Amino acid sequence: MLTNREPLAIHGGSKVKTTPFGTGKRFGFEEVTELVEALNQNTLFYHFGGKVKQFLQSFNDIYGVRYSVATSSGTAAIHVALGAAGVSVGDEVITSPITDQGTLIGILYQNAIPVFADLNPHTYNMDPQSIEARITERTKAIVVVHLAGNAADMDPIMEIARRHNLKVIEDCAQSYLTKYKGRLVGTIGDYGCFSTNDFKHISTGDGGVVTVNSGEEADYHVTHAFADKNYQRFGSSVQRDLHYLAPNYRMTELQGAVGIAQLKKLHGICERRRQYGDRITAGIGRLPGIQAHHVEPGNECTYWFYMFRLNLDELTCTRTEFCKALEAEGIPNMEGYIPDVVYMQPLFQKRTAYPNSHYPFELTGITYERGLCPNAESILQTAVRLPVNEFYTEKDIDDMIAGIRKVASFYEKR
Ligand SMILES: Cc1ncc(COP(=O)(O)O)c(C=O)c1O
Question: What InterPro entries does the entry give (predicted)?
């Protein structure tokens, strides 16, 4: 039994975590077999080989969609969705200030202007009311980021989008098999975008997928072409007419091959992460000074990471002291996620998407001030991030909980 004031390891007390965390191999014989088959095709081009096609077929089966397009990265997937949605010069796109820059790159390459909505302080996802408040006559689309495996509140977001005639692109790079009221995220908006970079639930080294949720063949054709220089490659016909710009974001057969094998592991990976994250919440949810990573009832989070917040009014320490003490207990953790909201990056502060230019920001004169999204700023100042990994054991998770409980009890204000 822990007493409230058990000495912390950082002060010379005994450590909570005395055994190494579980590890494992992400790639094995299944990937090797697929890769050898890919090479034996004597082509690594997605249109001539069968691996990317099979990867997408498996993806479509898992997600219950008719059409999807493979890309070279998650960033590319989002750019492709924006291009397919018709986002163009001077349009505004509403998105989240806590995300990877991959969410923003396609917006700016289309010469559209990112506009940031504030977040729910508990789920760290976009607040529908804040989205609606940021809509102007220039708004063309919303890129909804489902952060860390947790679903954004899609019903009101879709209702707002339909009312204002906006396209919805779901950024699911961190959220495989995440469920919103029983539905898989990535299938609710117009497009769902996924990343298979090496840090995600599944990896093809790099890569991505865009789902085309209208199920319309014409939408699929536009999306497919936007990932392939606007070449229209269907069956044996190739149409090369260039009406507008599109990048080359093609996936290779090698990535497709690894993806086929990785998708077979996806359910197991996500289920394990879901159980582990929810177990952490059950273990730390009622501690003073701690606000657990909130998942709305009826949703399923697949925890790309676990992020709790500190209520520093209830603790006698700073966040840095808390994190260092937890680290000394043998529990790896990080202060916050990205260092600051994305609009505090020099690119937004100096409005320089391109060197020696303020384009496209100058089209509207937009500026990005500190305080624009107060909840998002405060989340990053008070959050503590824990890695979650499917190779961890239940004992590892229980040790994480015990470490947090010990440190929180020590620093509890009485
Ligand atoms: C939320 C989010 N969106 C987009 C991306 C971009 O994906 P990629 O690195 O595959 O380009 C990432 C990757 O880190 C991400 O976490």
Answer: DegT/StrS_aminotransferase, PyrdxlP-dep_Trfase, PyrdxlP-dep_Trfase_major, PyrdxlP-dep_Trfase_small
Q: How would DSSP label each residue in 117-185?
A: PPB-TTT-SB-HHHHHHT--TTEEEEEEE-GGG----HHHHHHHHHHTT-EEEEE-TT-TT-EETTEET
Cα of 100 from ligand 1 centre, angstroms:
6
pLDDT value at 5 more than 90: no
Q: What's the mean per-residue pLDDT of the chain?
A: 97
Question: Angle between the 102-109 and 74-84 helix axes, to the nearest 10 degrees?
Answer: 40
Is the pLDDT score of 366 beyond 80? yes
Select from 71, 75, 262, 305 the residue to mutate for testing ligand 1; criterion: most ligand atoms less than 8 Å from CB.
75
Residues 310-331: tens digit of each pLDDT: 999 999 999 999 999 999 999 9
Work out which ligand 1 atom sits closest to the CA atom of 146: 1
CB of 207 within 6 A of ligand 1: the answer is: no
Mutate to test the pocket of ligand 1, among 80, 150, 195 (most ligand atoms within 8 A of CB): 195
Pocket test for ligand 1, best of 174, 302, 303 (most atoms within 8 A of CB): 174
Q: Is the CB of 172 under 6 A from ligand 1?
A: no
pLDDT in tens, 372-389: 999 999 999 999 999 999
- What is the percentage of the chain residues whose pLDDT exceeds 90? 96
pLDDT tens, residue by residue, 191-248: 999 999 999 999 999 999 999 999 999 999 999 999 999 999 988 889 888 889 999 9
Q: How far is the CA of 16 from the centre of ligand 1 (A)?
A: 34
Report the alpha-carbon distance of residue 181 to residue 306 in Å, rounded.
Answer: 20
CATH code of 213's domain: 3.40.640.10
Residue-number span of the structural domain to which 211 is assigned: 29-262
102 lines ligand 1 (CB under 6 A): yes
pLDDT of residue 140 exceeding 80:
yes
Residue 147 lies in a domain: yes
How many domains would you assign to the chain? 1
